[in-house]
Each structure stands twice: as C-alpha cells, then as structure tokens.
Protein 1
Amino acid sequence: MGIPAERIERLFALAREAVVDDEYDRARRYVARARRIAERNRCGVPSELSRRACDDCAVYLRPGKTSRVRTRSGRVVVRCLECGSTARYPYDGE
C-alpha cells in the first residue's frame, strides 16, 4: 500500500470521528480531501470506503445521523439526509 492509499484511509477515519463528534463540515472536508488525493494520484478510493461517503455532497454517511439505510429485495438503499441523493448496492441476504 502506498502513501496516497494510507492518507485516504486516515482521512476517512478522521471523517468518521468528526461525524461522531457532530462536526459534519469538518467530515465533509476530510472526505473531499481524500477524493482529491485519489484523483491526483490516480489510485481511486477503495469501494468499502467510497460507499461510506455521499457522491454528491461528500458527507460521511453514518446510519441514523447522516443517512437512512433500508434493505429492499436484493439491494441496500442508502439515502443521504444532507442532499437527498440515493445510492443502491446489491445485497445477498443469505
């Protein structure tokens, strides 16, 4: 793992801590900075981390605080409470 990947993971960890402390603007800046590092170094954000942030407003998604999570037949539906965008991911319930 290279330096950009380590920085991206660290910034997402800081974003998670900021959301726990109810500092959503700081969490949004951390996520935006992590995405900028990934873009600049052409490494991409890992999928397990990219699903934790809203694509439109870059807020860190935490169920119950900044997002609503529902399970539908064969998929998970995540709705951002900041901007209202919806993301759907496949889910195998077995």
Protein 2
Amino acid sequence: MKFDRVKSLDAIIATSKKKSLNRSLGAFQLTMLGIGGIIGTGIFVLTSEAAQKAGPGMMLSFILAGFICMCAAICYCELASMVPAAGSAYTYTYAVMGERLAWMVGRALILEYAIGAAAVASSWSGYMVGLVRNLLHVDISPLWVNSPQAGGYANLPAVVIILMITWLLVLGTTESARANAILVGIKVMALTLFAVLAIPVMNTSHFTPFMPTGITGMAGAAASIFFAYVGFDAVSTAAEETENPQRNVPLALIASLGFCTAFYLLVALGAIGSPLGAQPVMAADGSVLAPGTLALEHRCQTIVAGGTPTPLPCSHEALAHILRSIGWNRVGNLIGLAATMALPSVVLMMIFGQTRIFFTMARDGLLPAGLARIHSRYRTPHVVTIVTGIGAAAGAAFLPVGTLADYSNSGTLFAFAMVAISVLILRRTDPMRARPFRAPAIWVIAPLAILGCLYLYLSLDLVAILVLPAWGMTGLAIYYGYGRARSHVGRQDTVIPCPQKQSRDS
C-alpha cells in the first residue's frame, strides 16, 4: 500500500474555512466537553469489570492506561494546533499518509465514537434500573434491560437515552455544550463525594493479594479501562467550532485528561479499600470468570443467594453499591442519581464526535454529500447526527457494555497510534511549518504512544482484537466500491505528490 492522494494541510484548512461550522466554543466549554467525555462509563461502571480482571491491581491499570493516553494526547495537541479543522485523527492521517489510510482511521473512529456511545448508554441503563429499584422499589423486567447475550430481549432504556441525546445535538452545538457543562459539574461533585466518604474508611488489607491475576490480568484491565480515557480526543473533533483553536484545543486536551486521571485514582482507592474489596469472582474450580458472561452472572447469583453481599465485580452500579456497603444508603442513591443524570453527557460527547468525523468524510466526497448538509435553522449537521444516533441505539439494544467497550477500544487504539505516527512523519517532511503547540521530546513520547497502544490492543479479548481487521476489510470494500471514485481529492487531481522518501509500502 502506497501513500497516495495526500491532502495538504493548507487544503484542509482552506476547505474548513470555505464550508465551516459555527465557531462558538471557548476554552472552558471545550474543557468541559473533554471532561464530560472522559468521566463516565469507565469509572462509574467499568470499575467492576476492572476488578474482575485485575483485582486491586486495577490501580496500575488506571496508571498504565492514563500514561498511554497522555502520550497520545500530547501528539494530538501538536496536530490539533496545526490543523484546527473537524475530523480529528481522520483529518491528520489524510494530510500525512493519504486517503486510503485516512479512510481506515475514519472507520476505526466509528468504533470509538458510535460503539462507544452505545456502551455508555448501556451502562447508564444499569444505574437507572438500580436507582428506580432503590428509590421507588420498582423492579424493571430484565428482559428489557439486558442484551440477548445476558438473556434479555433488548436494552430499551439505553435506546431511549441515545435518541434523546440525538435530538439535543440536532438543536445546536452551543445548547449541547451548555447542557454538558451542567452534567459535568454533577459528575465531578458525585465523584468528590464518593472519595470523601470512601477513602477515610479504607481497609488496606483488601489490597492483598494486589495482583491476583498477574501482569496479564492487569494489562487486560488496562485495555478495558482505556475506554475511560478516550473521550479527550473529542476535543480535537470540535476544533472547527472553537474560538482561537490553536490555543484552546491543546489547553483543553491536557487539562481535561490530567483532571480526570487524578479523580480516577482517588475513586479506585476508595473502591478497593471498601468492605466489598476488589478481588475477582472465581468459578468453582478456582479459575477467574470472564466479565459480562452468563457464567459470571450465575456465579454472582449463587454468591448472593448464600447471604453474601453482592461482590464488586457483580455490580452494574459500582460506586453506588460501594457507598451502600459502608452504610451510606441515601448517598449511594444520590450517586446513582448523579450517574443517571450525568452519563448522558458522555453519550452526547461521543455522538458529537462521530457526527463531526462523518461530516468531514462527506465533505471530502468519501461519503454521500447529503450527510454533510447543515440544518438551515440550527446550523448543525442534522442528517449525519440522526444516522449516528440510530446506529448507536441499535448497538446499545443488543450488545452488553463490556463487549461494546472492548470493540470501541480496538478502534480507538488504532486511531491513537496513527496520530502518533503522523506527528513523527510531519516532523520529518514539514519541519518548518508553524506549530503553535510543539510537543516536547516527541521522539520519545510518540513511540511510547505507538507501542503502548499496540500493547493494550493485544491485551484485549480475542474477539475484540479480530473486530478491527474485519471492520477494516469491509471498510476497504466500501472505499473502493464508492468513496475512491467520488473523492474530491482524486476527482479534482489536487493530490500533492509524495516525495520518494515518503512513498513506501505500509
């Protein structure tokens, strides 16, 4: 595969100015967008899955995933400051490695955003059901909140929340950002309250054994927990709607990621030290059961039927369940209420990010032009927003949260690695271009990001590993069957020839 049909950075910036979105987001709103995307399913729900995979070793999982994300975020900062246009990793790859690989990255971002939105909506459903049970004493039939894999028909609450968020995004970016800022405040207050109540009563004996599943379990948990950090790159997808993006985008990227990492570690401390502990649930033969499986579900039911409190890995509302276990029943219900109110902000961020990727690909001619239509009144890409919402709702209805998160991670890790590679190539091929944010020690940070993404990808479950190449192959079929012939770059012969040193098999 050769690097061909490279769209220059100047052409990308010119296109974004010619057919641009409304620049209405400031530094604060953009940071809130990043925090809103990061704090969500990973800490409110996937804490249970991390405990099942790694036990107390999930502390190291949070650190590992956060470090790799920070390396990737620094790479994003440099590119986002150079190219303040919509499209994120897709746009950056188009400018450096050409149309084919850009299309592949765009396809991977569908896994990150659309499937990620489905995962968050599915996790929101668990908190909502728990809240209704504890506050109203009403049990919602599991047939309508479980996926078919868990013995249900469909996750109906998840479908409803996605459709509501889709409607909000159609109304407008500014309105969505304002609503998001409120929801972010609720989440931050909830996590602060959790840490304040849980850490002082922490039992340090629950940290032993620290890594019951070894390095493999810790890495597997990091690969799942990675989903808790990925929201930060939605900041770069909003660059075209940001005031002074050269300054505000890097600031929002680093601020949102650093803020959330500190919170994650505090919450993990409280969870591990709680009366529930964080040791994995074992099968009768002593083996560790895989999260999200019927075998784990049945084992959890057996444990609870014997009079033992529900273990942390068995809970679908981890933080609320922990607070109830230490005697804070009403506060636990409030945490459940906060998660129920605030998790939709993550769904909002992910659908928002996906629509901007689709919008940019349609603007480039790789997808039908109708997807890039802007609503005459709301000035939003309403068609692609509706299409994304329907697709995310379908995923949330029929797949469990852990499976959706791992699928999302496979696409995200590929996209992050491609961004890091793009930064290195641009440093060689266009060293004189202005870089409002110049990443420090890039020849150390970018390789660490690439190797870290590869390590986490190989630590995913086998099915999730295979999803990415299968998804990519179907994407190439669509590209050659539709997009390549209609690409504006290819059709108008505006390709910038690649220097010989840049052209190689990849």
Protein 3
Amino acid sequence: MEWNWQVVHDVLPQMLQGLVITIEATFIGALLAYVLGLALAILRMSKSRVISLSIYWTSEFIRRTPLLVQLYFLFYVLPDLGVFLSPLAAGILGLGLHFSTYTSEVFRAGIENVPQGQWEASKSLNYSRYQTMRYVILPQAIPPMIPPLANYLITMFKETPLLSAITVVELFNAANIYSNSHYKYLEPMTLVGVFFLIVSVPSAYFAMWLEKKYQRRSSRMP
C-alpha cells in the first residue's frame, strides 16, 4: 500500500466541500444548542415544580440516548408522522437538540453562581424577572461560561461524522463515498483525520486560552 498523490488531487475538492458543510452544521447546530440550552436552563429553574421536572426528565431522556438514534428518528421516523426534513436540516436539528441538554447545565451553573445579593438588589429596584435576567444576571453569568461552551463547540465538530448516517455529505462522508467508489481508503481517510486536526487542535488551544483568561479575571474580582 503506497501513498498516491493523484488520489489526493482527485478527492480533495469533494472533501473541501464536505468540510464547508461540516463547519456549517457545527456552527448552526451550536447556535441552536446555545439558544435552546439557555431556554432549558431558565425553565429548569422555574418555581413551578411541574415545569422544572418536565424539563429535567426531557433533558435526561435526550442526554441519555445516543445522538445517532436521535438523528435516525428525525430523518427516518418523522416523515411517517408527516414531518419531512432535509438531511442537513435534520442533522443540524439533531446536533442542536442533543447538545442543548449539555449547554443548559453550563448556563444553569453560571446563573446559579451569580451571588444572591444581585437578585435581591434587582428586586429592590423593582426590576421584573425578565429585566433582572437580561440586565443583571446574564451579563455576569455568561463570561465564565464561554470556555465550556467553546469546548462543546469542538465536541460537536468531532461528532459531525455521525451525520453521514442520514446521508449528509459532510467531510467524512465525502471521503467515504470516494473510497467506496474507487476502493482507495488510505489517502481519503488520512485526509479526514488531518482536516479534523487542523480545525480542532487550534480550537482546543483557543478554548484553553479562554479558560485561563476568565480564571484570571475571576481571581481578580473581589
């Protein structure tokens, strides 16, 4: 088995297109995960026990079941119920829903970490709960959340090969289609690993830098 640069030349354009789809699915899915995660965190902290427990068990169900099964449900089962999604839409929705249950815990921990005095001060100023959350609590809670949220973004990026199971032609599937068509696996699969390293390693160092930055900032706070 020898390395063939002609194979690299032939497969590279398809893989670059797949990389674009991978990054697109990651960032849109992450945005969805952050928005839903914040909503789940706020609902989880509701004073209504019914709402709080409902959100808790729903999140637990999503978190404890495999992402691959959820992707299959969204793409193959929902059409039987009259809901049709494109492969990419189903993949993005699956990533967003699955990881929102993890980001919600990050948001909830960050919100609960804000000193109780901040809530009491907002109440004394006659702020509504919405005003308190938007103008007082979240501006203090979100900065320390950025490092773990960035780590989940990297994790989502590494989970995108699962989208190939629902026919999304992302980075891995682009290489796999070429490999199965030409019976050449060394170069395409090696390139998949290289592309993932090129994106994920700098991202991981960036996440570490963010973590150290906010640790220093929090240590300077009285």
